[in-house]
Amino acid sequence: MNEQRTDSLRWTVAGESSSNATHILSMTWRDGLFAHWPVDPDDLRPHIPGQLTLETRDGQAWVSALPFVLTNVGLRGTPSITRLAFAGLGVRTYVRYRGERGVYFFSIDIGNSRIASAVGRATRLPVSHAQMRVGATEDNHVVFSCERRRRDADVPTRFVAAYRPDGETFTARPNTLEYWLTARRRFYGWTGSGIVRGVIAHDPWPLQPAAATIHKNTMFETNGLPAPTGGPVVHYADELSMTGSVPRRIRT
Predict the structure, then answer these.
(1) Quick one: which H or E segment has residue 181?
(2) Phi/psi class of residue 99: alpha, beta or left (left: φ > 0; alpha: ψ in -120 to 50)?
(3) This model's pTM is above 0.85
(4) Domains of the chain
(5) Gap between the Cα atoms of 145 and 160, Å rounded
(6) What proportions of the chain, in percent to the nearest 5, are helix, strand and coil?
(7) Cα(128)–Cα(109) distance, rounded to whole angstroms?
(8) Chain centre distance of CA 195
(9) % of the chain exceeding 90 in pLDDT
(10) pLDDT digits (tens, 9 = 90+) for 99-126
């Protein structure tokens, strides 16, 4: 899908609008997994800034871990030789701000120290550098590992999983859980001095049912979040071009 096509489909999700955001970045998502766990909203709410409203569905809040690979990352219109590629892992939940639906990132890990530092400075999101490995098995599983090394951490920050698509590609329909969990264009993070907000634009996610085994996950514990119980709701998303804005601090 070319960049012009992406622009023409910006903000097609029901109830969303572009808010005149300037999308100066473009990139391609690849080999991603959405892993979602329900949690008690009373346990999660203290971890959300007071300016944001924690969203629930059927009385449950949700926390998610998203391993992914981004390629062709850079300023829109720049040549491919200047573009970057890296693996990443996001930990997030689901919020509203003044009626606008979005996701709130507790952490974003990136597998390149220079890129992590640059992204953290540019976006003011909670970005850290972690050791990342992404590979494939003979039976077409993506093997993804993330380890953030900190000497002062009581618990090692690790996420290790193997996953693959396990069904036909589909587009999530409004009012379904899959749509509620994935069809969001605004994202928020806490900088220590306030909340930042950014927006992205892309076609609807090309979701597939997934077969996933999560071998290790301490991402919630090291973020101080309640530990989910039970297995996650999982979906695979193969490739999607998108554009995005640089996050800016919101005035409350």
Answers:
(1) helix 177-182
(2) left
(3) yes
(4) 3-249 (2.40.400.10)
(5) 4
(6) 15, 50, 35
(7) 5
(8) 17
(9) 73
(10) 999 999 999 999 999 999 988 888 889 9
